[in-house]
């Protein structure tokens, strides 16, 4: 065939893919893609400096299988394409396409195939006439199959990028891409797992999209054991279970763990019999992944010494809508409060945020497997925040640090850490100032 004859003369090119991303949670996109590529045996390498706020990233990925696995997990990306050509003008695009190895085109352009071409524009709307004109300009490509608009075997796309400023849309695109559609991401999970539709929610139930992002940052996979020490209504357990992990957790609030007490929904006074964490997993067909949730104090872990968890994913209480507290003892009972009977659970005492994060990191270092990840939210007072204020531990390596703004002066940061060193109780890092454990009062006092 004419195509094969030309193919023999052309050199092979790298496997380049175009990732089309959602314009939401921009800071979380890069760590999610890096984590997922690492999970599936790839490595993040960008072919050009297109990551950042742009919805178009060009990536080098070892194989199409890895690209498909990536899209089975990501909630930050919309679609991925095998990139055939790229340019800053139509002429550059056409020249790039003519240089693309024909042997890579052959399986998708032969006479027995069906196809269609779509036009996607970012930050600009084209008329149908303009779209048809762009498709007709691609007639030089050696398509030998038949057009099928309803159910094609192969879908090709022209993607045009008109920048990020909706108030200043250029006449011509900044970049034009042409590629073969490979797969779509998991954006529909945000709607299908929406907290609005969930049986059991609380005042601080985690947004579904962020829950899946946290699970992806934690590289949660099938048959992992995932733990949440501040489990609340179990939103993070639901996201982890969706990816096939077995989940468990603890919380100090008896009523929340058992689904008792006042409801958080408007116009509902008390929680019903089917409002609990297990029911949330049952709602999505994930009950088989539910291990258990215990009433327990995160500051006093009851676990035996050992490594149990592949990931710890949690949203600690910040003291705004959910107060930080721990169980006390008879000796710690504040003055003015009568001593409790020996058989009674001790009174709740305040639990300083710095102590809470100190305990969390130490617990993660002790109970995570090597390579396991800790993913948690860190509240910050923006005017005083510096990177030195992020808690650290000698057994944990910082992987990513992403900001979500809450107001003009407060935000929270999604911290992802990986266990890189075996825990040793003899390591002396308990004195925070001497070891530069940066949990200082000014950062936390605004949240008290």
Automatic annotation (TrEMBL):
Catalysis performed (reactions): guanosine(10) in tRNA + S-adenosyl-L-methionine = N(2)-methylguanosine(10) in tRNA + S-adenosyl-L-homocysteine + H(+)
Coiled coil: none
Annotated ranges, domain tRNA (guanine(10)-N(2))-methyltransferase TRMT11 N-terminal: 16-187
Gene Ontology CC annotations of this record: cytoplasm; tRNA methyltransferase complex
Predominant location category: cytoplasm
Transmembrane segments: none
Keyword RNA-binding: yes
Disordered, as annotated region: 320-339
Keyword Ion transport: no
Cross-referenced PANTHER family: RNA METHYLASE-RELATED, TRNA (GUANINE(10)-N2)-METHYLTRANSFERASE HOMOLOG
Protein name: tRNA (guanine(10)-N(2))-methyltransferase TRMT11
Gene: TRMT11
């Amino acid at each position: 065939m004419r195509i094969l004859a030309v193919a023999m003369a052309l050199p092979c090119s790298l496997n380049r893919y175009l990732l089309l991303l959602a314009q939401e949670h921009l800071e979380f996109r890069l760590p999610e893609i890096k984590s997922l590529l690492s999970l599936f045996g790839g490595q993040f390498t960008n072919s050009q400096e297109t990551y950042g706020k742009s919805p178009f990233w060009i990536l080098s990925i070892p194989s199409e299988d890895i690209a498909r696995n990536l899209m089975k997990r990501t909630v930050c990306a919309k679609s991925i394409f095998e990139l055939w050509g790229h340019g800053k003008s139509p002429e550059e695009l056409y020249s790039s396409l003519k240089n693309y190895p024909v042997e890579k085109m052959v399986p998708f352009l032969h006479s027995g195939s069906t196809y269609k071409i779509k036009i996607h524009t970012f930050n600009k709307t084209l008329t149908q006439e303009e779209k048809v004109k762009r498709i007709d300009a691609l007639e030089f490509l050696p398509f030998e199959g038949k057009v099928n608009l309803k159910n094609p075997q192969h879908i090709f796309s022209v993607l045009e990028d008109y920048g990020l400023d909706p108030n200043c849309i250029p006449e011509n695109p900044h970049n034009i891409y042409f590629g073969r559609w490979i797969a779509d991401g998991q954006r529909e999970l945000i709607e299908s797992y929406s907290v609005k539709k969930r049986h059991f929610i609380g005042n601080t139930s985690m947004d579904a999209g962020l829950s899946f992002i946290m699970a992806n940052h934690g590289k949660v996979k099938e048959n992992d054991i995932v733990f949440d020490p501040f489990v609340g209504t179990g939103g993070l357990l639901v996201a982890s279970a969706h990816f096939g992990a077995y989940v468990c957790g603890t919380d100090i609030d008896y009523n929340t763990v058992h689904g008792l007490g006042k409801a958080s929904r408007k116009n509902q006074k008390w929680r019903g019999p089917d409002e609990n964490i297990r029911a949330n997993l049952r709602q999505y067909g994930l009950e088989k992944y539910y291990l258990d949730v215990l009433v327990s104090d995160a500051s006093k872990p009851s676990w035996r010494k050992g490594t149990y968890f592949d990931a710890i994913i949690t949203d600690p209480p910040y003291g705004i809508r959910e107060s930080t507290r721990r169980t006390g003892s008879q000796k710690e009972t504040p003055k003015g409060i009568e001593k409790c009977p020996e058989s009674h659970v001790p009174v709740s005492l305040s639990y300083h945020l710095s102590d809470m994060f100190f305990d969390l990191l130490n617990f993660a270092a002790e109970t995570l497997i090597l390579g396991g990840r800790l993913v948690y939210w860190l509240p910050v007072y923006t005017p005083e925040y510096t990177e030195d204020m992020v808690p650290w531990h000698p057994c944990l390596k910082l992987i990513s640090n992403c900001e979500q703004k809450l107001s003009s002066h407060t935000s929270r940061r999604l911290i992802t850490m990986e266990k890189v060193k075996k825990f040793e109780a003899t390591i002396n890092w308990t004195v925070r100032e001497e070891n530069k454990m940066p949990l200082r009062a000014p950062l936390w006092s605004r949240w008290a």
